[in-house]
Amino acid sequence: MPGQSPRTPILIGIGTATQRFDDPLQAVEPIELMVRATQAAGRDAGNPAALLGVEQISVPRGRWRYGDPGREIARRLCSGNPTTVLAHVGVLQQSLIADACECIADGAIDLALVVGGEAGYRLRRARGLGVAAPDQPLPGEPDTVLKAKDELLHPAELRVGLKSPVSLYAILESAFRAKSGMSIADHSRRMAQLYSRLSAIAAENPLAWSRKALTSDDILADSPRNPVQALPYRRLHCASWNVDQAAALLLCSEQKARALGLDDRNWIYPWASTESQHMQPLTARDDLAASPGARLAGQAALATGGLSLDDIDLLELYSCFPIAIEMFARELGAPMTRDLTVTGGMPFAGGPFNNYVLQATCRMAEMLRKRPGAKGLASSVSGILTKQAFGLWSSAPPPAGFHFRDVTADVARVAPAREVLDQYRGDAEVAGYTVLKDGDALPRCIVIADTEDGRRTVASSDDPPVVGLLSEIEGCGKRIHVDGTRFALAA
Hints:
Layout: E1 9-18, H1 30-45, E2 56-60, H2 69-77, E3 83-87, H3 93-105, E4 111-119, H4 120-129, E5 144-146, H5 155-159, H6 165-180, H7 184-203, H8 216-220, E6 228-230, E7 233-234, E8 244-253, H9 254-259, E9 269-276, H10 292-304, E10 314-316, H11 322-332, H12 356-368, E11 375-382, E12 387-394, E13 403-406, H13 408-414, E14 420-421, E15 425-436, E16 444-451, E17 456-461, H14 464-470, E18 479-483, E19 486-489
Parallel strand pairs: 2-3, 2-4, 3-5, 9-13, 10-11, 14-17
Antiparallel strand pairs: 1-8, 4-8, 6-7, 9-12, 11-12, 15-16, 15-18, 16-17, 18-19
């Protein structure tokens, strides 16, 4: 069924590539996986020659150090000289998809490729065996380099050692739990039930890294393979970044798709892409348990199609940690009883560093093809729930063409920032916290606290009685005394 304009963007091809070799010397490096995924997308489109005409190649940067991976893909698979784009960590992956769609809709290009990949398992195995697994040098500079405009972390957070994603997300989780009024036990059970369901979805996903369905008891189990990372998170709550996966999306205008003689029965249409680029360090956020960006970007995505959440058949919520799913579900008004992922989520399907949204979009498209007229909504996150985006997709053409909306200014108006004090001394109340347990190191509790005049401070304690108590009881709302970067429980 044709769209309303010859410039309507269409997802004509999806491709993925996965490898899993315990011997890292048998495994290929990320650029090879990206090439394989791109080739698969060309075959999936129904005409591999479509790759020859690609005019723009966008790649989210991974842990690799390639200078211009898009140029290498173009050298191998394209006939022209496409524009290459490299997006650093801190740029929403959905933004690359949106840019490709906008360029097509505006007539700037006809064919675009968005591709990314990682070989984290290869790296992990190489480190474990003490062997080298270098990537080939790919020097050069992309035509366009995208970077976040601000730092993701506040200096006060760094000064107390609050920098790992798991610790920062765990603090948001504690604030969300407290605001929800759940006990620690009830909250742990709910997370376990959610993640048990994710694992069951992954078990049915042929592309998933782990296809073993787990019970709630498995998620809660205290074992060497499931240790506490940062309370309340265990290993099974965390994204599996050490995977070897790549994904490619091949997009073009409807006009070009018809010129290539492609079968429209496999076409998937991007209806909308919405995003908030408002950057606010975690500590400065007025409400640690809310995400105005997710709420407004989600509402904007649905509004472009005149839809409600009830009209969405498939939902994919970014799943690096439980709070990303829970907070986005709450902001969208999605019940936790519905399926919130099509892949099985980053802990089970695999969460390749800075590339998961492409993997999820491939799976979303695959499922939409089997359901004529169905609609899917996929979220994207960058930073510590810092930026938010949504992609709205359907197997049916959009009623009014593709729409892009940036809600950054709207989010800024409703998201006041707290002043963060670096060397506060005085009483405060815990707004969010976590306990870090790192091997044989002394456990440590880190808090974000509200001062008596409504400002914020960050402090830590490794005092065993304090750490022990806050490992067992709800710490949010507790009164503490802060002395610089250290805290003690108030008398």
